[in-house]
Design goal:
This protein is 10% helix and 40% strand. It is mainly beta and 231 residues long. The radius of gyration is 19 Å and the shape is globular.
Length: 231
């Protein structure tokens, strides 16, 4: 028979689990996120930073990657972003989808940003994409949906994600500089696994992938309307 101290420990642990909020205990597998075709994505990942999630389906026959990136802005007027970087594992040089709330009852705004050099510029991306939209989810989360064209034969892509500060009159504010924000990057293997560090491990001629990029340096300093943003 269990001792009184053991029973007390079990009851305490059970009580603690019972009061954990749905937002804290949520994983990608508990989210009912569907593709543009209203079907489940093939794979989902609990990303290692910023309590973010990625649902995705890779179709090799047409070199397309359909994604749903899910995260909660850090504030009611905040933003979230998910990006592919064709040339490195930092935000600088990446091609980003950025979304933020647009008011009660209205769908979130989602825009594209071509981050060239040190400038965060809204505009056309370096690759084709379609089915771009954003949805508001329970718990204050936003989902960014998009399908992107990746190079034929690519085994992985460099992904970067972010949760930013406020958005004022469409102007995107700076995000926090904490380690989770600065480390929100990984190599997304299209076969269904994700790794941090080390750069892409892309076999053969994969177009815009690179290998062995040091994640600890070159954070990328981006300037937006006079505001310095470090990713």
């Amino acid at each position: 028979m269990a001792s009184r101290s053991s029973l007390l420990l079990i009851l305490t642990a059970a009580s603690f689990v019972s009061i954990i909020s749905p937002a804290t205990s949520q994983t990608c597998s508990t989210q009912n996120v569907l593709s543009a075709e209203k079907t489940p994505f093939q794979t989902c990942l609990d990303l290692p930073e910023l309590e973010s999630y990625l649902h995705y389906t890779y179709i090799a026959t047409n070199s397309s990657l359909s994604v749903a990136f899910v995260a909660a802005p850090s504030r009611s007027d905040g933003w979230i972003a998910w990006a592919i970087n064709p040339t490195a594992t930092t935000m600088s040089g990446s091609q980003a989808f950025l979304a933020y709330g647009s008011g009660a009852g209205a769908p979130p705004v989602v825009k594209t940003y071509n981050i060239t050099g040190h400038n965060l510029t809204e505009g056309r991306l370096a690759f084709d994409f379609w089915n771009l939209r954003a949805e508001a989810l329970n718990g204050g989360r936003i989902a960014i949906f998009a399908t992107v064209k990746v190079p034929a034969g690519a085994g992985s892509v460099n992904q970067v994600w972010q949760i930013g500060g406020n958005v004022t009159n469409g102007r995107v504010g700076v995000h926090p500089f904490s380690p989770p924000n600065l480390n929100a990057r990984a190599v997304l293997n299209l076969t269904g696994t994700s790794t941090t560090g080390g750069g892409s491990k892309t076999p053969g001629n994969a177009g815009w992938m690179v290998k062995n990029v040091n994640l600890g340096v070159n954070l990328g300093i981006l300037v937006l309307l006079g505001t310095i943003i470090i990713f």
